[in-house]
């Protein structure tokens, strides 16, 4: 189920948070509302960690990660690194990488199996990504934009890309990522998808400017509606009842 | 000594021709060779680039369903299903398989009939699977083939053709681009499927959300003068425009403020009832909205038309005869020749187009103007065509001492000198001496802004401009009304032809007699005249009869020298005119619309005016330099009579080349308005 919220009156949720299947990182804000919304959804399932990266609050765009690992840019301070290592579960490998393009969230878009990266990323970084995150790395562009981390976002179930993506590109990406993709918008027609939306396998958070249409697209492609308990019961009922007598 | 080799021309000719032939042959050979070479090169190049190679075939699957030999006569029945994989190894060429025939054979014996495979096209580096079923029934085979292994062979015969992909060729060695088709997204507000745009909202949602005409004027008041159909552009300009015209559209659009924030694409009128005093304009504007999308929107602006008289119309309304400047032209002579001539001049130069009213007065014409500047301009014009002196006065009409504005009526009194053409003048002695002892009796030959005086006895000419004249304002002794007719008995040239001030004169002695004297008495005169070039024996001339004239001129009385008896002025065509009896002329003149203040004059005056006009017209006919400055128009009703051709010595008439075709804006035919001269 997708939740609409704001960070200090700004609808770009994906900039100030990072959500994966194993953890959630949240930026430190003036009020606790942002943090408490995440906590309300996720507290008993995965750890919600408040942090900053390189002293900034734009943590969603600075780091990239999935349930297996987290990659941090070279300007992350030691304290932040230590704090993250302590807060995150042991199964998550936290690694600081030396990379010229330090906004890793804009350059890398990944789920638990596949990652799309900026075409200009270093070879070592690519290897590190494959290693730490345990994914297959593809260098790609989305609708002609090289910042793949900003213009597309995907989980293990589905993905949303820039609205101007052509059908051929969509097919190509879909085959690479092995998930269904749809071209759409978020936050009332904004095409910077990953900045306005953060998603994992069972929940999504998007900016409060997101219209109902966009929300329905998000929920359908990431299959968030079926996460409700009633859906499961309906499925079971269909399989239990063979014939109507 | 050098050796000269001589060859016969024939030999040379032969040699030359052969040479030419050789040359052309050589050229031909050369070009054909080049052509073939270039084709060869092209083929080699293609070969080199494309590297065409044969397709690779491999057997993927063979199903033998049925294979047995019947006895006693060895017949072989077989049913084999075959799948072949063929790959095209070429990178840039495709292969066209033009139909294959497959058959199975054993030891070069064909055991199945040919099965054809339909033709197909194979793209570059594309694998294709070909499958065929071979059925052989009752093939006669060698009896040696009894049992054991049966080595089967399959043969395919067919033709291939390599096709270079033009697309690949065109891109050379570059990337192979996939054609991009834009997908569709849902509009973020209403959810309908649409092509993605910069705002990612469908046009309707965008339009309903953003109004780019916000802040633009939708209601404007404009001021209109119903008298002169013009609209006020503040602060003071009035623009004349018709309803639904281009000028009105530009004016209305200019009156809109803030239109520079958006880009206007289209503007047009929406019809409104003229009496409604409303003008509606539909405007289409474009503006950039969120995320760079450009939105176009149409909206209507309503103009309320308010009536208000403009200043000039208000003034006219208050007093319709309101003039500000009046020019009073006067010439104190008993005839109106000057004014006829002036009228034509004014028409030609359009000098009186600003005049509100023109009135014909006794001994002159009055012109009334709406602005002082027009009056001044007219006075200056008259000063350029006639010797005048003028004075100007003004009269206060109204004043506003608070704002220091005063309204006056200006009057210009212009007096034209009384000297006309063909006048006989006796110069006052002081003037005569100052002009170089010009004989006191002179003829005025030409009057423009200077007066040309000619002494007929010495053929000396001098010019007096207006100032000089008015300093010593003399009057004419005799004027053209007092001309008498003379007949030339004899002419004798004294001096040869002279060119005096642009005109030719010949000094001659003439033996003349008055026509009134002919037959009655024998009085004749010998006179010196300047018209030797015009007159000859038997001609009639007009001149001043000083012999019998009674002039009360002080100057003439004081003159001690010899006063001639006759002074001839011009040739007379009176006789011939009476013979001709031609009523209409081939040309006509236009006239100013003057208000004539008659009433008391009566018919006599009118007749006098008509004869004077007739004289004026005759003058025009006789003097080409007089009509030089005027516009004569072709008279359409004129029909040349038969008698005119028979006349030997013609009365002077205006040649056709000098006439202007009158611009006739009638609906039947449109005249070409050409200056023929």
Automatic annotation (TrEMBL), chain A:
Signal peptide: none annotated. GO terms for molecular function: ribosomal large subunit binding; translation initiation factor activity. Keywords: Cytoplasm, Initiation factor, Nucleus, Protein biosynthesis, Ribosome biogenesis. It is found in: Cytoplasm; Nucleus, Nucleolus. CDD domains: IF6. Its main location: cytoplasm. GO terms for biological process: cytosolic ribosome assembly; ribosomal large subunit biogenesis. The keyword Protein biosynthesis applies. It comes from the Eukaryota. Binds to the 60S ribosomal subunit and prevents its association with the 40S ribosomal subunit to form the 80S initiation complex in the cytoplasm. May also be involved in ribosome biogenesis. Monomer. Associates with the 60S ribosomal subunit. Belongs to the eIF-6 family. This is Eukaryotic translation initiation factor 6. It comes from Salvia divinorum. The gene is EIF6.
From TrEMBL, chain B:
InterPro entries: Nmd3, Nmd3_N, NMD_SH3, OB_NMD3. It holds the Pfam family NMD_SH3. Residues 419-463 form the 60S ribosomal export protein NMD3 SH3 domain. The chain crosses the membrane at residues 28-50. GO terms for cellular component: cytoplasm; nucleus. GO terms for biological process: protein transport. Residues 483-571 form the 60S ribosomal export protein NMD3 OB-fold domain. Residues 187-416 form the Nmd3 N-terminal domain. Keywords: Cytoplasm, Membrane, Nucleus, Protein transport, Transmembrane, Transmembrane helix, Transport. It is found in: Cytoplasm; Nucleus. Its main location: cytoplasm. Belongs to the NMD3 family. This is 60S ribosomal export protein NMD3. It comes from Salvia divinorum.
């Amino acid at each position: 189920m997708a939740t609409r919220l704001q960070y200090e009156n700004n609808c770009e949720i994906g900039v100030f948070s990072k959500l994966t299947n194993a953890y959630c990182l949240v930026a430190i804000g003036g009020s606790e509302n942002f943090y408490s919304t995440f906590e309300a959804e996720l507290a008993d399932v995965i750890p919600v960690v408040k942090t900053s990266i390189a002293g900034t609050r734009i943590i969603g765009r600075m780091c990239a990660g999935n349930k297996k690992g987290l990659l941090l840019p070279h300007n992350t301070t030691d304290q932040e690194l230590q704090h993250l290592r302590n807060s995150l579960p042991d199964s998550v490998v936290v690694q600081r990488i030396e990379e010229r393009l330090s906004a890793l969230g804009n350059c890398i878009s990944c789920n638990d199996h596949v990652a799309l990266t900026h075409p200009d990323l270093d070879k070592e970084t690519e290897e590190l990504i494959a290693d730490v995150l345990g994914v297959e790395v593809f260098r790609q562009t989305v609708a002609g934009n090289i910042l793949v981390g900003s213009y597309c976002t995907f989980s293990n179930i589905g993905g949303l890309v820039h609205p101007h993506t052509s059908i051929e590109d969509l097919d190509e990406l879909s085959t690479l990522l092995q998930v269904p993709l749809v071209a759409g918008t978020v936050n009332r027609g904004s095409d910077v998808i990953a900045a306005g939306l953060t998603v994992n396998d069972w929940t999504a958070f998007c900016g409060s400017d997101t219209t109902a249409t966009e929300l329905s697209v998000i929920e359908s492609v990431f299959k968030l509606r079926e996460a409700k308990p009633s859906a499961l019961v309906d499925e079971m009922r269909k399989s239990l009842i063979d014939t109507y007598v | 000594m050098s050796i000269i080799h001589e060859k016969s021309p024939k030999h040379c000719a032969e040699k030359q021709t052969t040479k030419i032939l050789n040359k052309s042959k050589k050229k031909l050979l050369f070009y054909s060779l080049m052509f073939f070479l270039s084709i060869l090169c092209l083929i080699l190049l293609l070969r080199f680039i494309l590297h065409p190679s044969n397709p690779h075939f491999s057997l993927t699957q063979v199903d033998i369903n049925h294979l047995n030999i019947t006895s006693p006569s060895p017949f072989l029945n077989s049913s084999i299903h075959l799948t072949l994989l063929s790959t095209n190894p070429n990178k840039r060429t495709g292969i066209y398989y033009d139909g294959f025939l497959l058959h199975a054979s054993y030891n070069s014996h064909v055991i199945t009939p040919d099965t054809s495979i339909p033709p197909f096209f194979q793209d570059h580096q594309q694998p294709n699977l070909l499958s065929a079923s071979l059925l052989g029934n009752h093939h006669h085979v060698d009896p040696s083939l009894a049992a054991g292994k049966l080595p089967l062979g399959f043969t395919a015969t067919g033709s291939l053709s390599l096709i270079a992909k033009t697309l690949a060729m065109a891109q050379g060695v570059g990337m192979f681009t996939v054609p991009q088709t834009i997908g569709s997204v849902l509009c973020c507000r209403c959810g309908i499927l649409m092509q993605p745009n910069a705002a990612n909202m469908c046009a309707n949602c965008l339009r309903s959300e953003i109004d780019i005409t916000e802040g633009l004027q939708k209601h404007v008041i404009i001021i209109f003068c119903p008298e002169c159909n013009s609209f006020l552009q503040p602060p003071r300009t009035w623009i004349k425009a018709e309803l639904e015209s281009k000028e009105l559209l530009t004016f209305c659009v200019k009156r809109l403020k803030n239109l520079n924030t958006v880009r206007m694409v289209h503007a047009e009128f929406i019809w409104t009832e003229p009496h409604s005093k409303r003008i509606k304009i539909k405007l289409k504007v474009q503006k950039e909205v969120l995320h760079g999308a450009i939105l176009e929107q149409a909206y209507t602006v309503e103009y309320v038309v308010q009536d208000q008289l403009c200043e000039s119309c208000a003034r006219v309304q208050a007093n319709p005869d309101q003039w500000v400047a009046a020019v009073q032209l006067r010439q104190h002579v008993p005839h109106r020749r000057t004014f006829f001539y002036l009228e034509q001049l004014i028409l030609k130069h359009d000098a009186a187009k600003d005049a509100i009213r023109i009135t014909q007065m006794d001994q002159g014409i009055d012109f009334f103007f709406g602005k002082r500047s027009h009056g001044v301009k007219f006075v200056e014009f008259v000063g350029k065509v006639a010797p005048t002196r003028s004075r100007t006065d003004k009269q206060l009409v109204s004043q506003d001492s608070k704002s220091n504005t005063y309204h006056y009526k200006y009057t210009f009194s212009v007096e034209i000198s009384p000297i006309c053409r063909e006048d006989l003048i006796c110069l006052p002695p002081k003037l005569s001496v100052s002009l170089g002892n010009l004989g006191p009796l002179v003829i005025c030959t030409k009057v423009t802004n200077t007066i040309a005086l000619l002494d007929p006895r010495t053929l000396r000419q001098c010019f007096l401009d207006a100032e000089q004249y008015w300093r010593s304002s003399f009057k004419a002794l005799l004027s053209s009304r007092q001309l008498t007719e003379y007949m030339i008995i004899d002419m004798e040239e004294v001096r040869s032809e002279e060119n005096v001030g642009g005109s030719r004169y010949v000094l001659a002695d003439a033996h003349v007699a008055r026509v009134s004297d002919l037959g009655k008495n024998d009085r004749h005169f010998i006179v010196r005249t300047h018209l030797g070039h015009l007159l000859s024996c038997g001609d009639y001339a007009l001149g001043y009869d000083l012999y019998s004239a009674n002039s009360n001129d002080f100057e003439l009385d004081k003159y001690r020298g010899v006063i001639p008896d006759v002074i001839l002025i011009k040739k007379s065509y009176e006789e011939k005119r009476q013979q001709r009896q031609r009523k209409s002329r081939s040309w006509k003149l236009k006239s100013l619309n003057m208000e004539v203040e008659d009433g008391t004059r009566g018919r006599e005056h009118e007749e006098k005016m008509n004869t004077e006009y007739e004289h004026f017209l005759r003058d025009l006919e006789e003097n080409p330099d007089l009509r030089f400055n005027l516009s004569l128009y072709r008279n359409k009703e004129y029909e040349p009579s038969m008698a005119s051709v028979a006349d030997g010595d013609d009365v002077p008439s205006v040649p056709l080349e000098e006439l202007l075709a009158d611009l006739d804006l009638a609906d039947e035919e449109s005249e070409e308005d050409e200056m023929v001269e």
